[in-house]
Amino acid sequence: MKRTTTRIGVAVFTAAISLGGRGAARAEAEPVELGTAAGAGPSTPAGNEESPTPAPEPQPAATPERPGTSGPAPAPSAVGAGSELDAEAAKYAADLLAETGGVTTTGAAPAFSPSLKLYGFADFMVQKYLYLSDAWKGVLNNNPSFGVTHVNIYAEADIAPAWKTMIEVRFLFQPEGAAPNDVSQTTLDPIATSGRTNSATYDIYDSGRAVYLGGIAIERAYLEYAISPYLKIRAGHFLTPWGIWNVDHGSPVIIGPSRPYIIGEQFFPEAQTGFECLGTAPLADGTIGYHLTLSNGRGPAQVLEDLDGNKAVGGRLFLRGYWLGQLDIGVSGYGGTVTDARQQVTDVAAQRVGWFDYSHYREIAWAVDLRWLWKGLHFQNEAALHDRAWSDDARPPGLYGIGYQPDVRRIGMYSLLGYRLPWLNLMPYALFSYYDAGLKATFLGSHRVVAFAGGLNMRVTPTVVFKTELQVGKFLGTTPGSIPASGTINIWATQIAWAF
Question: How far, in Å, are 253, 300, 397, 411, 437 from residue 360 at the CA level?
Fold first, then answer.
């Protein structure tokens, strides 16, 4: 009887230690991150830049705490605790826990149980251009418009110990109604073609009525193996780790109705196909982390194949500290070659074909970012530079078929300042953006533009966000008589975004 009582007591003590350790580990590994709300998806480890959960930015009602400080203190491990439990008692505890499914008789962890989590985000937009010049009215649709701009679904699964996979798919109503970027295709003969895509097909089981087809964009699909918090390896299609809002791109996270203009201007490729290594480590009162990428780079078939064999390399280094709130600082880099290799007949008699480079250039990009959260204050800044240098023997025609493509340097930045008020979860904010495209032909007579925006972001619930914004864009150094010289572009946009 005494022996049995001892066994049960030891087992309960060991189980208590195990549960306490698990609770502390969870508190350390799963703090609430920017862009994660309760019930909106899995949280992200501290210091990991990628936040796949598209939930809203949390309410910064108080200064963010250092991850792990709010959880219980880690309990001592029962493994190898010879000074606390003798070997025989530890065996008795393991035997008893094994009988209840806790651990095996050898002290091994319970059998792995695969898991699958589905979550996502969507948004609805209202947009109207205001007070446009007659020249701009001929280019832009001046009518108020409604649109569902994002429907993104995430599938995240733990498929084996240390193995996980992430797939993100965006559903679109396009290509139905989409217009080409080259307006000359429609303006030269608008009677023969509207220029808009007609994706209608006909349902033979519904009296041949039209069904308008949309599209699917695979944002990411990768497999990840976690060797340790210091090193994880991904293989597949992943979002390029640069800046703040390229990876953490869910509509409920973005403060305005859309991301700042430069984020979509492809200073870095939005996504890459290849390998990514990443990890984090504690550093004094913060966390330091890194990303390294090796991919096909850009190109006309970048998701499927590399047309020049010169792999693109990139990386990101970031620091997160908890000095006067939360401070995130990052620097990113990327470099590679972009080749459009095509085939042509080289010997008609022998029926042979060969490859030639229709276009080929080398690119390099750099970016820095900073985000500071303190009480209700939110300050965020990103800046990027991109250089493109063409090979002289593979330099394609210029824009609109004029001359040849020149080497070009592009520069862009934005700064955002907002403050979350203590009532109605309301954040008024201001945004300044600057973009130098390097070529005057880019904007039909100008290559530099500045934009000023002001708006309100209201957290209706932890997973529903309402936003409204007015933005004014002004072109600099315009060519006299050009469309940009005719006036500013003024946009009013309102959006409701939700995570699920």
Answer: 37, 11, 12, 21, 20
**How far apart (Å, rounded) are the C-alpha atoms in residues 209 and 215?**
20
| b/e sequence 435-444, b meaning 16+ C-beta within 10 Å | bbbbebbbbb
Of 439, 444, 455, 438, give the one whose Cα is nearest residue 491: 455
C-alpha span between 412 and 265 (Å, rounded): 9
- pLDDT tens-digit profile of 285-337? 899 999 999 999 999 988 888 888 899 999 999 999 998 899 999 999 999 99
Cβ contact 124:495 at 8 Å:
yes
What does the buried/exposed string (b/e) look like for 49-80 if buried means 16 or more CB atoms within 10 Å of the residue's CB? Answer: bbbbbbbbbbebeeebeebbeebeeebeebee
In this structure, the number of other CB atoms found within 10 A of the CB of residue 474 comes to 16
pTM of the model: 0.76
- What is the residue-wise DSSP string for 449-488? EEEEEEEEEEEEETTEEEEEEEEEEEEESPPTTSSGGG--
- Measured distance CA(94)–CA(88) in Å, rounded: 10
Q: Is the dihedral of CA 58, 62, 67, 70 positive or negative?
A: negative
Spatial CA neighbour of 47 closest among 261, 203, 375, 279: 279
d(CA 33, CA 36): 5
Chain segment 441-491, per-residue pLDDT in tens: 778 788 899 999 999 999 999 999 999 999 999 999 898 988 888 899 999
